[in-house]
């Protein structure tokens, strides 16, 4: 078998194709150079404001904490060990300590829930906008982006005014006589969930809309004409087109949700740490910059792994399909 | 230590900034960059300083000592003045971050109440001058809780009417120190049995807490909580809007603190910074500081210029027979590591 395949290229290699190949390679090299030149501003930015600070964090995460913040230039892997284990201060033994894992898990859980919540609200919204006449779509998009004109902090405070014991919802319900004790709405995980969904919803709506806008709705009509059910139309016609938008939206909500700082702090009441707040206190009260750096990197690694797994999975599916 | 609502601080800083700019003459002789707690600097004070010395003042704010230290250590340049709390003065002086300006040689030094000269964080006042001082205890609504308020039991083992109606400061040291005082154990503690007991106490108490937040005034006045761990000046400001609030002086003890005007090493405007240190020791100016942020100031003769309601306030002047507040020096790294674990475990 091996001999058979090897003999095939030997019979066909005229000189002309060889010259063509060289010319093509030259053009490719020229294109490559232009591409690099065009990319260079973006690459420079990524290196200067992305990779460089990141490498400082990486270096810090392998050092020892300074007594009052900062770092001592002594190599140490303690920051990573501390993430899973606690060292007994008197005997040098390590015991498993799930406290930081629990904090990470709470953040992941909440970010996942917010993503699902935004998806459930965002998809119908995007579909609604995409099915309006083109002249009206811009108005709807404008309305979706309107909250961005106000600072996130201010919007979160507005949520507090709505949710608190003497807030809008409770006052209305009490005035209507539906309740006589205020409902406990604020300073709960539910309030944080609501806050995250509210803050990140536009990030879900916009990419889904961008994808759905390309959908030729005559295809939907055709599917109905061919006796497809609503479910089948959604699954076989709309979703395949919307998929890139859905994925982009989910990533855009999940990733910032994971590191959210203000929303959990204000709407959650500050009793439970989230990753973002946990990292922040390492640079403050806890005086442990290396651990803060290590935790940031671990968080980044988790996000990267999740994205890679997705890319692999999506790529394979496309290959088979 | 008076970390206020972020927005309130931002809005006020903005206000202060605008007022400050308004007062600047076209040809100010110099500049001064102040880095102070948010919602803590009287714009009148800045205006008056700008006028007197023909200096343009800019004001930035922070919400915790640690945040300020991190920024300064991280290389934030251009600031002349910072206002660290007692323990942070000793940390910063020890790290060589402060300029030895010798305020004890300044003209207005004679106005300092002698009680505030031989302090542990700056013996003999070689670096800093007093800004304001106060206490950290808690405020409780006497319409909700009728009993004796002067015990930490209300925070740490609350009666049914206060359960779920409590805000604690989101501050590792203040929460842990309250627990240690309640149990009668020493501060900066590294005794494992005692810390285990402390940790159990806090975890049990946390179930009764509604929030852990620095925005104490807002938490109390909005009706979200009926008890909040608090600073005395914030307690007074909250009482103005909710008159049934009462500031407690727990019999188990409570924290005292003083914020101090310090000059950073390498300050670009060293001479103006020294002028400012001298300026805030003037009784009339010290009163301006107090009238705005509602804390006592440590300058003799400033009472004359202070608002009447302040001089009589039980938050500012403790009732006769109240014990002295306890000033807690910074703990060593081993203790901080242990506290960190207790804190992380409490908040996980």
Which parts of chain B are unreliable, with pLDDT below 50 for 5 consecutive residues or more?
Answer: 1-27
**CATH class designation of the domain at 111-288 in chain A:** Mainly Alpha
What overall form of chain A do the CA principal axes indicate? flat
Which structural class should the secondary elements of chain A be placed in?
A: mainly alpha
Q: Cα distance, first to last residue of chain A?
A: 30 Å
Q: What's the order of the H and E elements of chain A? A: HHEEHEEHHHHHHHHHH
Side-by-side strand order of the widest sheet of chain A:
1-2
Mind describing the biggest β-sheet of chain B?
9 strands, mixed
CATH fold name of the domain at 111-288 in chain A: MetI-like fold
CATH topology of the largest domain in chain B: D-Maltodextrin-Binding Protein, domain 2
Number of domains of chain B: 2
Organism (chain B): Tistlia consotensis USBA 355
GO cellular component, one term (chain B): periplasmic space
Subcellular location (chain B): Periplasm
Signal peptide (chain B): 1-28
Write a concise synopsis of the structure shown.
Chain A is mainly α.
Descriptive tags:
heterodimer, A: 321 residues, mainly alpha, MetI-like fold, two-stranded antiparallel ribbon, 13 helices, 73% helix, 3% strand, flat, disordered N terminus, B: 348 residues, alpha/beta, D-Maltodextrin-Binding Protein, domain 2, 2 domains, nine-stranded mixed beta sheet, two-stranded antiparallel sheet, 11 strands, 39% helix, globular
Please give a structural write-up.
The complex is a heterodimer of chains A (321) and B (348). Helix content of chain A is 73%, strand content 3%. With 321 residues, chain A is mainly α. Chain A has a domain of 178 residues: MetI-like (MetI-like fold, Orthogonal Bundle). In chain A, the strands form 2 sheets. In chain A, strands 1-2 form a two-stranded antiparallel sheet. A two-stranded antiparallel sheet of chain A has the order 3-4. Chain A is flat, with a radius of gyration of 27 Å. The N terminus of chain A is likely disordered. With 348 residues, chain B is of the alpha/beta class. Chain B has 2 domains: 182 residues, D-Maltodextrin-Binding Protein, domain 2; 154 residues, Periplasmic binding protein-like II (D-Maltodextrin-Binding Protein, domain 2, 3-Layer(aba) Sandwich), CATH 3.40.190. Chain B contains 13 helices and 11 strands. In chain B, the strands form 2 sheets. In chain B, strands 1, 2, 3, 6, 7, 8, 9, 10 and 11 form a 9-stranded mixed sheet that branches. Chain B starts with 5 loop residues before the first helix and ends with a helix. The N terminus of chain B is likely disordered. Chains A and B meet through helix 4 and helix 6 of A and helix 3, strand 8 and helix 13 of B.
